Amino acid sequence: MELVKICPTCQQPLNSIKDLKKIEIKILKFINHFQKTHQFSPSYLEIQHGLGIKSSSNLQRYLKDLKRKKFIDFIPASARDIKILKIEGWLNE
Question: Residue 61 has what pLDDT?
């Protein structure tokens, strides 16, 4: 029997790293490292430049996919609004 982690906000099951693309893992690791270093979330432009993503629309799509997969959420009415919902050991690698 496998235990399923539940999102504290929406009470939906959280997915696993197996459900992510390589770029989505890189984005999560970048956000996690930035938050630990600066004590706040990176801006979308900082993520885009930090990972060499050329198109802002691609970054928006990746972030929406991460939200749909229940790995991140956005804090309403906040400029640096990304919140990681699921922090595991692989994020620190």
Answer: 96
